[in-house]
TrEMBL record:
Keyword Zinc: no
PANTHER family (UniProt xref): TATA-BOX BINDING PROTEIN
Coiled-coil region list: none
InterPro entries: TBP (IPR000814), TBP_dom_sf (IPR012295)
Short name of one Pfam family: TBP
Swiss-Prot/TrEMBL keywords: DNA-binding, Repeat, Transcription, Transcription regulation
Name of the protein in its database record: TATA-box-binding protein
Sequence repeat intervals: 100-176
Length: 177
């Protein structure tokens, strides 16, 4: 692994409770701090504090979990919410299916970049400094987008795993050495 520092900023997961339907009106009253206004949005917005994660809960038994900064934290938040649901009388027979939709990480490559040169040398890039100060670098394997900045910092989006993030850091480093 190349020596690129990275930090996961956000993980987005889809969570499916198979053969389960939620009574959102009832759940909103049971989950402390839950917000439910069906006129505005067809789901419950709920924030877990420890570990930190936010959920959108739908009547279909599906949820989105966002805001966790580690897979361990995301899984603990989902387990804790599942336990709270079971304890409040919601029938959940199976453990939920969890799928990573997106991981976002910040990079520090430890050196500055000449974005003009990178843009000229690679076809899978976009650089329009009058519109956005970063260079957009699209990778096919792993299928992610990395935003690079002159400062040597970057943002990786679209990863499905931490291995994808590390692989992206390595590929960018190899490409622009």
């Amino acid at each position: 692994m190349v020596d690129v520092k990275y930090e996961i900023q956000n993980i987005v997961l889809s969570v499916t409770y198979e053969d389960t339907e939620f009574d959102l009106e009832r759940l909103a009253g049971l989950l402390e701090g839950a917000r439910y206004d069906p006129e505005v949005f067809p789901g419950i917005a709920y924030k877990s504090v420890d570990p930190t994660a936010s959920f959108l809960i739908f009547a279909s038994g599906k949820m989105n979990c966002v805001g966790a900064k580690s897979m361990g934290g995301a899984k603990r938040a989902i387990e804790k919410l599942t336990e709270n649901l079971r304890n409040s009388g919601v029938e959940i027979d199976k453990e939920p299916q969890v799928k990573v939709q997106n991981m976002v990480a910040s990079f520090d490559f430890g050196r500055e970049f000449d974005l003009e040169t990178i843009a000229r040398n690679f076809r899978n890039t976009e650089y329009e400094p009058e519109v956005f100060p970063g260079l957009v670098f699209r990778l096919d394997d792993p299928k992610v987008v990395v935003l690079l900045f002159v400062s040597g910092k970057g943002v990786c989006a679209g990863a499905k795993s931490e291995a994808d993030i590390e692989e992206a850091a390595g590929r960018i480093t190899e490409a622009i050495e």
